[in-house]
Write a structure and sequence with these properties.
This protein is an alpha+beta fold. It is built from 10 helices and 6 strands. Helix 4 packs across helix 6 and helix 4 packs antiparallel against helix 7.
């Protein structure tokens, strides 16, 4: 079991530099690059095509809905209630003009990957219809056609785009060809997401064995796994990632993982600085990036505690409303 578990390391949100080489005798389908990117280094959430938080929660209000002191109940291993209080109406989505709307968009993803969620947040906010191909991390046969062996991969009208930030840049240029001005504040915080925020997540969602099991319950339930793969991934993967999270803390000089998560949430809240979004009255690409990478953890224990103990909650709820329902096409 442990030999197979070791081969799960590379796709569960941690750098390959922390890994020991795996034995060549590990069972087929469990190679070195099997699983880590499914959670934080490459991938996304959203199984039902309409609402991507996990576990299923109350449907998000329409993008233009005004919310004022309403109570929303969210379930995760029992009901968790929190109060939603917004004083400002959220702007509607921003779909591109019809002539600039891509005609055929396919996202190759892991359901639990925050980087895939970044891409999906962009697509959903701009109301761009897209199809999803869930990649099985054991073998990745769904992307054997590509030389690029990680997710997300977005195919737009036959053109392959890779790396979440590059995907968003290129797609944004396609639908907003007139927008050539670089926003330095937006760029700074997008880099912060990729270079700092994502590194805080793994130590938090795998902080304890129960939290690691909670995370893998979502991953294995919503990912593309066969029955035996699901069992192996959940129990062996959770155990492995619990141990790996300790190495991540050391690598990124994290003493207290929860404190680091709360600090990141407060850092972002201070950057927003009283505005509805960093972009002002509408989310910009930095807002969508932060929202995307946080979405996979929002209703896990780490995400719930982050909202309870920091001031990021109202911004996050505004983002849920602004991004609105998914534009994902049903298969």
């Amino acid at each position: 079991m442990m030999r197979r578990a070791q081969s799960l390391y590379p796709h569960f949100l941690y750098p390959r530099s922390l890994l020991r080489p795996c034995s060549s005798s590990v069972a087929a389908g469990f190679g070195r690059r099997t699983f880590t990117s499914a959670v934080i280094n490459n991938g996304d959430f959203a199984a039902d095509g309409k609402w991507r938080c996990w576990p299923p929660s109350v449907p998000a209000p329409a993008a233009s809905t005004f919310i004022n002191s309403k109570s929303v109940s969210v379930g995760l291993a029992g009901a968790v209630s929190f109060s939603v209080a917004l004083s400002t109406a959220v702007e509607a989505k921003e779909p591109p003009s019809w002539d600039l709307l891509p005609k055929d968009v396919v996202l190759y993803q892991y359901e639990a990957c925050p980087f895939c969620n970044k891409v999906k947040a962009f697509l959903d906010y701009h109301d761009i219809p897209y199809k999803v191909v869930e990649v099985n991390p054991f073998g990745k046969k769904e992307i054997k056609w590509s030389d690029y062996k990680k997710v997300p991969i977005l195919v737009v009208d036959g053109e392959q785009l890779v790396e979440s930030s590059d995907i968003i840049d290129k797609l944004n240029q396609k639908i907003h060809p007139e927008n050539v001005i670089v926003d330095e504040e937006e760029s700074k915080w997008r880099r912060w997401v990729d270079e700092h925020l994502v590194h805080v997540l793994s130590p938090n969602i795998y902080r304890t064995i129960p939290e690691a099991l909670e995370s893998f319950e979502y991953i294995t339930t919503h990912g593309n796994f066969k029955f035996h793969e699901r069992l192996t991934a959940k129990y062996a993967g959770a155990t492995v990632m619990y141990m790996v999270s300790k190495k991540l803390k050391k690598k990124y000089n994290i003493t207290d993982e929860r404190a680091a998560l709360y600090e990141a949430a407060e850092t972002w809240s201070k950057a927003v600085d009283g505005r509805d979004f960093l972009g002002g009255s509408r989310p910009n690409l930095a807002d969508l990036s932060v929202f995307g990478v946080l979405r996979p953890i929002r209703y896990l224990k780490a995400g719930r505690e982050m909202v309870e103990n920091t001031s990021i909650g109202e911004w996050y709820r505004r983002m849920e409303s602004a991004v609105g329902e998914s534009s994902r096409l049903q298969a």
